[in-house]
Amino acid sequence: MKEQDIDQQADDDGAQLLPAHVAQGEGSIVLAATPIGNMGDASFRLVSLLETADVIAAEDTRRLQRLIRALGVTPKGRTLSYHEHNEASRTGELLDLVTGGATLLMVTDAGMPSVSDPGFRLVEAAAERGITVTAAPGPSAVLTALALSGLPTDRFTFEGFLPRKAGERAARLAELRAERRTMVFFEAPHRLEAMIRALHQEFGADRPACVTRELTKRYEEVVRGSLQHLLEWVEGVAARGEIAVVVGGASAAAPSEPADHVGAVNQLLEQGLRLKEAVAAVAEDARVSKRELYAAVVAARS
């Protein structure tokens, strides 16, 4: 393809608000990312969609009004609220509007709809009915925090908000203790200290982590260090604003040797298991050779 053809294609694609496969007059849903703090991050496409969509479904209509005022936008379509308390009852109504040919724009308070925000139920129901869903991507607190953390970004997992109750939170972190990928969490300011303390207890003082606060805003703050460092830091601050916490994954454990598990076999023998049964049980759990473990137990007895 010639350079001028590439430039022409880029110009054509850049002027397009919806994908070419959305037929004229066919209804569709557009999930649009909104700024996570800095209004300068609003895309041209978001502005155009706010102006032209037939219906705008917003997590908080008051936040939407502040957004459109800041962007100098005058929407032509109607606005409806769509949040966690009315998703179940309003999803069908929105899909009926789309089926009738409307372009529905879905926005949340900040970032991408359906990512720890309303929208998942709408997309799920639209997929079941064969309704077109596309996205106008943009700001993301998850990816911004990950990029700023200084921790590995090649493989990561988004864990959202941890459970509020201490016992449930500890149980969830215990499940994640051996997670090798970098982990990204959201947390409320008033629960941040309890969260860091729980991470410190479950993952250890030396695990690297990063707390990001008020991303893209005037008082943006990024604090990196071990969980011990972050625990000492959080005890002396009154954190405010939107918070994302990034935690490094667990280090690879050194491969164990059969001789390392002789003690575990002996404990099972004391509980009444036969030698072969105890060796088989421990070998399967530790993922070592039964034959070599058996030999190690016999050698330890001689």
From TrEMBL:
The primary location reported for this protein is: cytoplasm
Q: Which SUPFAM superfamilies match?
A: Tetrapyrrole methylase
State if DNA-binding is listed as a keyword: no
Organism superkingdom: Bacteria
State one Pfam family annotation: TP_methylase
Question: GO CC annotation: what is one?
Answer: cytoplasm
Q: Which InterPro entries match?
A: 4pyrrol_Mease, 4pyrrol_Methylase_sf, 4pyrrole_Mease_sub1, 4pyrrole_Mease_sub2, rRNA_ssu_MeTfrase_I
Q: Does the keyword rRNA processing apply?
A: yes
* Keyword annotations from UniProtKB, A to Z: Cytoplasm, Methyltransferase, rRNA processing, S-adenosyl-L-methionine, Transferase
Q: Name one GO molecular function term.
A: rRNA (cytosine-2'-O-)-methyltransferase activity
Localization:
Cytoplasm
The EC number(s) given in the record are 2.1.1.198
Record-annotated Tetrapyrrole methylase domain positions: 29-230
The broad enzyme category this protein falls into is transferase
Q: Which reaction does it catalyse?
A: cytidine(1402) in 16S rRNA + S-adenosyl-L-methionine = 2'-O-methylcytidine(1402) in 16S rRNA + S-adenosyl-L-homocysteine + H(+)
Main function: Catalyzes the 2'-O-methylation of the ribose of cytidine 1402 (C1402) in 16S rRNA.
Q: Which family does it belong to?
A: Belongs to the methyltransferase superfamily. RsmI family.
Task: State what protein this is by name.
Answer: Ribosomal RNA small subunit methyltransferase I
